[in-house]
Amino acid sequence: MKITSVEAIAICIDPDADSPMLVAGEDAARLSEIEQTRRRNLARHQTCLVRIETDTGLVGWGEGQESVAPRVIKTVIDDVCAPMVIGRNPFDIEAIWNTQYQFVREAGHLTGYYIDALAGINLALFDLIGKATDQPVYRLLGGQTRDRLWAYAGFGGRDPDATAEVAAEHVAAGFSALKLHCSRLSVAQCAEIARAVRSRVGDDVALMLDAHIGFNVSEAIQLGRVLEDLNFHWLESPTAPEDPYGSADIARALDVQIASGEWLRTSWQWREFLEAHALDVAMPDISRSGLTESKRIAQLCDTYNIPVSPHVGRGGTIALAATIQFAATIPNFQIIEHMHQVHEQRSKICTEYPSPVDGYFEVPDRPGLGMTIDEDVVRGYAI
């Protein structure tokens, strides 16, 4: 079996007219021009899909996540990656990743868009091999350690009462864990939202807060102490991603877990954060790192006794499906991210895809990644 084509397809899916606001309590008319642009990008689902076909006619689908500039990933795949993949046996999946990584390593392309592109190819190869062997991808990754995954629903908020209302709606939908996206807010504003949500949903719901790298070390510690009093599960991405030692200071000062790492794409990057003891919960993103490298990352985290809660963020349905397969295999899994408000929007490219039931994902046993792509629909959203 040989790979005959590698096609990257950048897509954009605009929200439906009746879609809910993604940031509760926000007055769009009062936003600056930059913030309005940011909100438009947030409302759209943009990513880069990868379609790989073999001489047997088998097709695998992957996703290299890039929510703002997916055509950059497409260019990298078209111009750099595809020529190194065409003609290879898809079962040489780890060798293919290593060949591509090594190709521009000396030039310093060790992270960012290039690794995102490799991730998209890697996911497509796993999907293809699963179909070729009639096996779900979790078996290719080493086997299933669990058949059910606890999920938290993430949503944004700027107004305490409005955010608490959205939280209650998610609890009514069956979620027992919620994450509040509090971006570009002060410590006092985050604390007020956190108090309102805890008061509304009660003590039995696990709560997390994502600060989106918004604070310096002392501010993050101040917020973390408020979250400890409110029995929050974790504080996520509290400070600059370039500063593992600042993050380590935060982690040492607080009892609440520090969750971090969505921007780290390879085990080499993860090593520095783990050696610095900069986090309590690791959040690799499978559509940025790929399944091959994410397994290495999870194993590395396990040697430091660190649980893994894979990041999905603005990734699409293929990213989610791959993350479910990954999470089913690792011994140190904690919880999986899910963006429930936009799930159906992102899943328009599929005829069959995973959805949560009562706040949990069942691990599908279908061959490949566990979703079915409607290729005509994909091409209709191509940009």
Commentary on this structure:
- This protein is of the alpha/beta class and 383 residues long.
- The chain has 2 domains: 3-140, Enolase-like, N-terminal domain (Enolase-like, domain 1); 148-366, Alpha-Beta Barrel (TIM Barrel).
- 42% of the residues lie in helices and 18% in strands.
- Helix 3 (93-103) packs antiparallel against helix 4.
- It is globular, with a radius of gyration of 20 Å.
- The two termini are 31 Å apart.
- The model has no long low-confidence stretch (mean pLDDT 96).
Short summary of the structure?
The protein has 383 residues and is of the alpha/beta class. It has helices at residues 33-43, 70-85, 93-103, 113-133, 137-140, 160-172, 187-201, 217-229, 244-253, 267-275, 286-303, 317-327, 343-346, 375-380; strands at 3-13, 23-24, 45-54, 59-64, 148-157, 177-181, 206-210, 234-236, 257-260, 281-282, 336-338, 350-352, 360-362, 372-373. The chain has 2 domains: 3-140, Enolase-like, domain 1 (2-Layer Sandwich), CATH 3.30.390.10; 148-366, Enolase-like C-terminal domain (TIM Barrel, Alpha-Beta Barrel).
The helix/strand series, from N terminus to C terminus, equals EEHEEHHHHEHEHEHEHEHEHHEHEEEH
Q: Which fold name is given in CATH as the topology of the largest domain? A: TIM Barrel
Strand runs, count: 14
Residue fraction in strands:
15-25%
- Count of separate DSSP helical elements: 14
CATH superfamily of the largest domain: Enolase-like C-terminal domain
Q: What is the average of the pLDDT values?
A: 96
The termini sit apart by: 31 Å
CATH top level assignment of the largest domain: Alpha Beta
